[in-house]
Amino acid sequence: MSQLLDNLKALDQKMLELFQQNEVDSEKILSCIDEREQILQEINSEFKSVPGFESSQEWQDAIIRTKQLVKLLQTESNQLGEQLKKYRHGNKSVQRYQQFL
């Protein structure tokens, strides 16, 4: 159990570092999300029946990190959505001005 949780923790740290970069690399983040899902599935299948696992400190820490990563993903998605709105508005403005040319 400890090895899987250590792998999850290392991957979470890698994801946090990716979010702190000036330009977020969405492909790397998607790859990390896929890898994280696999690790969580392994943890779930191996330790679901272990008494006290869900209340262990390591698992509770993993839940806290998960919540933090979800917030970062939501924030990044919202920012990208706002940038897309600005781009679309600018594109429409260009099309309007091209009518006069």
What does this structure look like?
The structure is a single chain. 82% of the residues lie in helices and 0% in strands. The protein is an all-alpha fold and 101 residues long. It has one domain (2-98). The protein starts with a helix and ends with a helix.
Please outline the helices and strands.
Blueprint: H1 2-20, H2 26-47, H3 57-98
Helix pairs in contact: 1-2, 1-3
How helix-rich are the residues, as a percent range? over 70%
Report the average pLDDT across residues.
88
Give the DSSP E fraction (strand runs of 2 or more residues): under 5%
Low-confidence stretches: none
Question: What is the total number of structural domains?
Answer: 1
Number of DSSP E strands: 0
* Net shape: rod-shaped
Q: Structural class, judged by helices and strands?
A: mainly alpha
Distance between the termini: 67 Å
Distinct helical segment count:
3
Question: Strand-and-helix sequence, N→C?
Answer: HHH
Radius of gyration: 20 Å
Organism: Vibrio algarum
InterPro entries: FliT
Main location: cytoplasm
Subcellular location: Cytoplasm, Cytosol
In short, what is this structure?
This protein has helices spanning 2-20, 26-47, 57-98. The protein is mainly alpha-helical. The protein has one domain (2-98).
Name some characteristics of this structure.
single chain; 101 residues; mainly alpha; 0% strand; cytoplasm
